[in-house]
Amino acid sequence: MSVPLRVVHYVNQFFGGIGGEDQADVGVTVKADAVGPGRVLEKTLGDGARVEATLIGGDNFVNERADEAARVIAAELDRLKPDVLIAGPAFGSGRYGLACALACKVAQAQGVPAITAMHPENPGASSARREIYIVPTGASTTSMQAALDALAPLVRRLGRREPLGSAEVEGYMPRGIRRVHDRGRPGYQRALDMLLDKLHGRPYRSEVPYAAPERVPPAPPIADLSRARIAMVTTGGLVRKGNPDRQVSANAVRYHRHTVAELESLSPADWEAYHAGYFNHLVNSNPNYILPLSFLRDLERQGKVGHVHEHIYALPGVSTPVAVSAGHGRSIAADLKAGGVEGALLVAT
Amino acid sequence: MISAIYNFALTTGANRVIRGARIEHVCGDPTLSPEKDYAFGMRIVTTALQTLTIAVPGPTLFDPMTPGKT
Asked: Which of A157, A162, A285, B4 could be cross-linked to B20 through a Cys-Cys bond (beta carbons 3.0 to 4.6 Å apart)?
């Protein structure tokens, strides 16, 4: 019979039996054998593995003094020399999830295979899923046994230093790693099979991973437009004539804020578009097509709109990575909020 | 969001989407007479402003050419 795998288990102060929130500042300590959920973990792992020791860290301590915590975890792993480290499961607990991710990263840096489990929306998962193995769990401890059942087979293989297959097959969260491999049949045949399945209403799966766009809760409606401050934003690449601010025509790393406090409309003598994604000549003859200042001024005069915000925001919305665009959007939205703006018109070309 | 590629806006999660004229002239139409161009642009802009006073459950299209229909 082979020697059982030596497992070290990381848990927080709560699962380690030290205490609740009032004990979240305790440092990292070690106890021999399995503790708390570690006992169930050991049972789930079966005869082939044994929890040799449990590392227990206070959630606040490990997050606020991460360097110190990492040093202690590293020293204990160096002493214990486990075959594999398991952290958590942390479920939906944010600080615990981040601590589990830290423990896994420390272990991996020492050449010890590591794995954790937590809810996909746990900040520990969003920050570290590309670097470590994370098994998705439910948000609460009621999914403990399911989480341990999912962890166990992966733990056994990691402990024996067997390579894991793809995230899709093994059930851990995708790390964004692509490996070249032979699917056996050329792409055009697979595509045609997929098309036939689709036409016949049979289930099929795309080979291209789909990143679902973020859902943003709709802003509540404005009660009274005639009193509201309205701003304008454009991704049409609006620039001052001659582009003195040196805006780029694509892949914007920043946006430009201009003041229109004194302006009744955007004159083609003073404004134009610089955007690599569409023909700009029509906008150059009337920039209000992409930033409708002339219309809003009329509505403001008629009392239908309270105020036209004095600042406008412009960038060329083309060839920009989603993450960068989201950053521009967040920054513009924060500026609008600080300026007392209640509604904004975003013109996208 | 006012956009001529409104399906793109809807599928990427914009909640209040107003159908614009064309990519090269979102708020108006230079092929029309100046008066009609302005009236068309004004219709798009006022439709957009009205959407700000309406609660929407999620990505919703408003078409200035078919008022009241979304």
From this structure: B4
Is the same domain home to A133 and A20?
A: yes
Cβ–Cβ of A290/B27 closer than 8 Å? Answer: yes
Q: Would you call B27 and A289 a contact, using CB atoms and an 8 Å cutoff?
A: yes
* Global pTM value: 0.63
Which one of A222, A292, A349 has the shortest CB-CB distance to B23?
Answer: A349
In chain A, residues with a C-beta closer than 8 Å to the C-beta of B54 are: 221
pLDDT score of B69: 45
> Scanning every residue of chain A, which has its alpha carbon at the shortest distance from the alpha carbon of B25?
A289
Closest chain B CA to residue A349: B23
Cβ A218–B16 below 8 Å, yes or no? Answer: yes
Judge if A267 and A151 occupy the same domain: no
* B chain contacts of residue A286, beta-carbon cutoff 8 Å: 25, 28, 30
The helix (run of H) or strand (run of E) holding residue B17 is strand B16-19
What pLDDT shows up at residue A1?
52
A234 plus A161 within the same structural domain: no
Q: Do A213 and B13 touch (CB under 8 A)?
A: yes
Q: Is B61 on the interface with A (CB under 8 A)?
A: no
In this predicted structure, the answer to whether residue A161 has a pLDDT above a threshold of 80 is yes
> What was the pLDDT predicted at B68?
52
Nearest-CA distance B60 → chain A (Å): 10
Could you check whether the bond before residue A89 is cis, i.e. omega within 30 degrees of 0? yes
Closest to A130 measured CA to CA, from A172, A78, A159: A172
**How far is residue A283's CA from residue B47's CA, in Å, rounded to a whole number?**
21
Rounded CA separation B27/B3 (Å): 9
Domain annotation covers residue A202? no
Amino acid at A276: A
How many domains are there within chain A?
A: 2
Domain boundary residue among A131, A152, A170?
A: A170
CA–CA separation, A85 vs A268, rounded Å? Answer: 65
Handedness of CA B16, A335, A291, A235 (dihedral sign): negative
How many whole angstroms separate alpha carbon A224 and alpha carbon A186? 60
Query: How many C-beta atoms lie closer than 10 Å to residue B20's C-beta?
Result: 26
Q: Is A292 on the interface with B (CB under 8 A)?
A: yes
Which residue range is the domain that position A51 belongs to? 5-170
A94 lies in the same domain as A17: yes
Q: A15-48, pLDDT tens digit by residue? A: 999 999 999 999 999 999 999 999 999 999 999 9
